[in-house]
Amino acid sequence: MIALKDKDYKKAISEFQNSNMQNPQTYFYIAKAYLGDGNTAEAKKYADMCANFNALININQAFARNKAEQMATSL
């Protein structure tokens, strides 16, 4: 999160990819990092992964799903 805030997108991507991939917010933040880095294809891929994350009960999905859908649609 710090690397993303500091606009160090390559480091943010690396750190997020080493974090919990069972959390849809992780995919959303990876999408934001790719978008900041200028890679819209990867940003769209991860935004779609977040928006379509399939979990039984995951409160984190509630925080990220709509934002990810909007991001994926705009790319």
Describe the structure.
It contains 5 helices and no strands. With 75 residues, the chain is mostly helical. The protein has a single domain, classed as Serine Threonine Protein Phosphatase 5, Tetratricopeptide repeat (Alpha Horseshoe). Helix 3 (24-37) runs antiparallel to helix 4.
Which tags fit this structure?
75 residues; mainly alpha; Serine Threonine Protein Phosphatase 5, Tetratricopeptide repeat; 73% helix; globular
Walk me through the topology.
Elements: H1 2-5, H2 9-17, H3 24-37, H4 40-51, H5 59-74
Offer a quick outline of the entry:
This protein has 75 residues and is mainly α.
Number of domains: 1
The whole-number mean of residue pLDDT values reads 91
| Termini Cα gap | 22 Å
* Structural class by SSE content: mainly alpha
Beta-strand residue percentage: under 5%
Enumerate how many helices there are, as a single number.
5
The CATH topology is given as Serine Threonine Protein Phosphatase 5, Tetratricopeptide repeat
Helix content: over 70%
Shape: globular
- Uncertain stretches of 5 or more adjacent residues: none
How many strand segments?
0
| SSE arrangement, N to C | HHHHH
CATH first level: Mainly Alpha
The whole-angstrom Rg is 11 Å
Report on the biggest sheet.
none
CATH architecture call: Alpha Horseshoe
